[in-house]
Amino acid sequence: MDTISIDLNKISTAGEAPVNEPERQYYFMAKLKEWVKQKSEELGRPLTFITQTFGCQMNAKDSEKLAGILEEIGYVETDTEEADFVIYNTCTVRENANTRVYGRLGFLNSLKKKNPDMLIALCGCMMQEDVVVEKIRKSYRFVDIIFGTHNIFKLAELLYNRLQSKRMIIDIWQGTDQIVEDLPSERKYKFKAGVNIMYGCNNFCSYCIVPYVRGRERSRNPEDIIKEIKDMVADGVVEIMLLGQNVNSYGKTLDKPMTFAELLLEIEKIEGLERIRFMTSHPKDLSDSLIEVMKNSKKICNHLHLPVQSGSTKLLKAMNRKYTKEQYLDLVDRIKTAMPNISLTTDIIIGFPGETEEDFLDTLDVVRKVRYDSAYTFLYSKRTGTPAAVMETQVEEEVAKERFNRLLKEVQDISADLTKRDEGTVQTALVEEINNQDSSLLTGRLSNNVLVHFPGCKELIGKLVDVKLAECKGFYYLGELVE
Ligand code: 5AD
Ligand code: SF4
């Protein structure tokens, strides 16, 4: 499933590669298509690939782009790492993400010994760190290609270079202001898709490595976004998730500046599109006009992810979040006044340097006052190069863990309580898949992001159906189709 259709057979591979993008990549893709065909004929089977995504929805979207390029040149996707081409799209937001990648690399090496033609590429956020690349170059010589977050569009060229040179290819860009449009992208689901609206982040929260590895904020042109969504809708998509590190500051860097609220109004007009989601929102940039647009929209889902990170004004200042506890709570009040039923979710970091019991109680207080439908809770992880990493008062692990458990219990109790509030009502669900534990059931997603499982046939997948939420099971529902 591509969002663009290029006929690679019509691309000339004679002569030098074009300088401009995306034509340059089309040229390498055409060359590789011939190579993949030849190689498959030699082997008597198709060449296979797998992309493994570590990390967030941005990475998942990037992996779909990588897969789109590989499918275009004739590779076939598989679900095992015993493949001809394995790509790890890495994350580095917390240390344990890095640890997982190193662990898995050992296993890949053993697979490569069995299949010497196997190619291994590493890309994504972790590769933007010099120490990581240095370590892989020295100790993981079996890796074939290393690239970063700014040049994933170059996959075809990098693969071509690898095949020509037989040496490890390393291509990491420190930053970019380039946005390359019109490259293929696979879609995991036919009926829903992520759409990048901006890249990078300018916020420099003091614990966060993202601005260093994903670069400065860049917004895509609204025309490109709208066109991509229209093409997706024509191809069966009914729900989109607009992606950006901080969607509320969308459009500031455009030649003709535009707000996120204005972009949403344009997207709302797209006929055939039924549901709009977006993430992530930074509280400091969430405008009253966005609240108004959400309130009046027929398509924007009844859900807002609004990371608070901490409830302590002192810690929020040290985190460089640019809002106070009171300002956050006031924002939540305004949102709830406009949309009393909205489902709110959040991210919380426990154990940030300098966190005292009093700071922690402020966080618990916010959790109790806001009553989140769910909260992603993280133990603070020290990221080298960020201001927080050199703050002196690092919190002891034991203390942080104990607070973490207390927070988790509070979050879960509230969450179970809130989910129950819709029990007995009829709601619209987008049917996503056959339930992976009981194949007589389908799994659908409600507007507020909660899942419901109900009996039904697979022909309903991708459709919006009305479901009675018969029984709340904590974080999900068992339901019945309403004919
Ligand atoms: N330690 C722990 N959690 C972090 N996050 C970002 N950086 C760190 C870190 N160094 C969390 C934030 C963010 C989410 C995506 O990851 O809560 O919102
Ligand atoms: Fe990281 Fe803050 Fe940017 Fe989110 S807004 S990506 S937490 S720096």
From TrEMBL:
Residues where [4Fe-4S] cluster 1 binds: C56, C91, C125
GO cellular component, one term: cytosol
UniProt KW keywords: 4Fe-4S, Cytoplasm, Iron, Iron-sulfur, Metal-binding, S-adenosyl-L-methionine, Transferase, tRNA processing
First-listed, main subcellular location of the protein, grouped into a coarse class: cytoplasm
PROSITE patterns assigned: MTTASE_N, MTTASE_RADICAL, RADICAL_SAM, TRAM
TRAM domain location: 420-483
Domain MTTase N-terminal: 47-164
CDD domains: Radical_SAM (cd01335)
InterPro entries named among the record's database cross-references: Elp3/MiaA/NifB-like_rSAM, Methylthiotransferase, Methylthiotransferase_CS, Methylthiotransferase_N, Methylthiotransferase_N_sf, MiaB_methiolase, rSAM, rSAM_horseshoe
Reactions listed under catalytic activity: N(6)-dimethylallyladenosine(37) in tRNA + (sulfur carrier)-SH + AH2 + 2 S-adenosyl-L-methionine = 2-methylsulfanyl-N(6)-dimethylallyladenosine(37) in tRNA + (sulfur carrier)-H + 5'-deoxyadenosine + L-methionine + A + S-adenosyl-L-homocysteine + 2 H(+)
Superkingdom assignment: Bacteria
Keyword tRNA processing: yes
Intracellular or extracellular location(s): Cytoplasm
NCBIfam families (alphabetical): miaB-methiolase, MiaB/RimO family radical SAM methylthiotransferase
Protein name: tRNA-2-methylthio-N(6)-dimethylallyladenosine synthase
The species this protein was found in: Anaerocolumna aminovalerica
Gene giving rise to this polypeptide: miaB
